[in-house]
Amino acid sequence: MADTLRSSPDDFPSVLDRRARLYRWARVGVLALVIGYFFLPYEAQSVIPVWLVFLLALGLEVQFFAGAWLQARRREPRGPVDRGPQPRDIEELGPQYDEWEPVSLFPSEWYSKPVAAARPYWRYVAEGLGALAVVAVILYFAVRPSGWDAVSPENKAKTEAALSREATQIAGHPAQITCDESGRQVGYVQDADGLAEVGGNRAYLTPAICDTLYQLAFKDRVKSFSGTARAIAVLGHEAQHLRGVRNEGLANCYGFQSGVQIGANLGLSESRARAMMREQLATNVSDSRGNAQYRVPSGCSSGGAEDLHPAESDFP
User: Does the bond joining 114 to the residue before it have cis omega, within 30 degrees of 0?
Assistant: First the structure.
């Protein structure tokens, strides 16, 4: 008797429940992708359109509801369930005659057809709308202008002018620093924070480097000690290329030394700028482990062959 009252796994409500459980896990995966979007590098976020992530979430919900609706339309309506003796029962036990009164151990209403519990289908709709709302809110904050994108065009121009002045002083001739928002010259794809033509007059920096230097020069804000040190060192490195230094390791060595003055000109105290460049020098070996050509030469030390100011005791 219990088997005849149990819902079939092919019943539409059971199928919908299984789909709902599956899609809950899929929603978790989509939310994980959305959150992971925040941790992508600036250059990667600029390549991946944010609406693509939202369309993925929207497509998941549309497929869930559209698939369930189409499945319900294809399902043929079933006739009433016959709870009387089945043909196999009659064959084995003989026919049931009307003159025999069936034995009733419980009230008659207990033998009536069980009423299926109402399925809260609205819950699935609420889950889908809730998931889309969460994704939309997260992506809204993700696409809000931040970093270099949030800097006004006027301040961007001022920043490039200030950085160009620093590069001109080091190169010894007019130099132009451009913050490459297009990503064609430097960035995530090129795996470079800066680019300069040796002996030329133009260098490119990533928007992230430019934003760090903008925060320092115009907001008097150090986003992080190591991050600001890195940005100053990149500017010094590219300026040394404009000066005519071709060797990458040597450009690093000279860039760390000129970075002290760059940092001071952009608003740091000389002692803090020097501490930043000393950190860059100390981590140069580990930073250049994947590319040995950026490792500073052995003479890059106080009084060494590559010391630009051997008469001074401080290095860099």
Answer: no
pLDDT given for residue 1 in this prediction: 45
d(CA 45, CA 64): 28
CA distance 124 to 15: 13
What distance in Å separates the CA atoms of residue 255 and residue 238, rounded to the nearest whole number? 8
d(CA 66, CA 63): 5
Domain ranges (residues) in the chain: 10-100+120-144, 152-294
Q: Give the SS3 label for residue 231.
A: helix
Are residues 138 and 34 in contact, defined by beta-carbon separation less than 8 angstroms?
Answer: yes
State mean pLDDT over 136-151.
74
Burial (CB < 10 A; 0-12, 13-18, 19+), residue 167, is buried
Matching residue, tokens 């907001």: 219
The pLDDT of residue 52: 72
Give dist(CA 17, CA 257) in Å, integer. Answer: 66
**Hey, what long-range contacts does 94-100 have (CB within 8 A, 24 or more apart)?**
none
Which pair of tokens denotes residue 34?
Answer: 């959305």
Distance CA 18, CA 9 (A): 10
17-21, 78-82, 224-228: the lowest-pLDDT one: 78-82
Question: DSSP for 201-235?
Answer: SEEEE-HHHHHHHHHHHHH---S-HHHHHHHHHHH
Rounded to the nearest angstrom, the gap between the alpha carbon of residue 104 and the centroid of all alpha carbons in its chain is 67
What local confidence, expressed as pLDDT, does residue 192 receive?
A: 86
Helix (H, G, I), strand (E, B) or coil at 149: helix
Q: How far is CA 255 from CA 135, 172, 243, 245, 312, in A?
A: 44, 14, 11, 10, 17
Going by the DSSP 8-state scheme, the letter that residue 308 receives in this structure is: S
* 194 pLDDT higher than 50: yes
Q: Could you tell me which of 265, 268, 264, 237 has the C-alpha nearest to residue 171?
A: 237
Per-residue pLDDT at 190: 63
- Contact present, 315 and 308 (Cβ < 8 Å): no
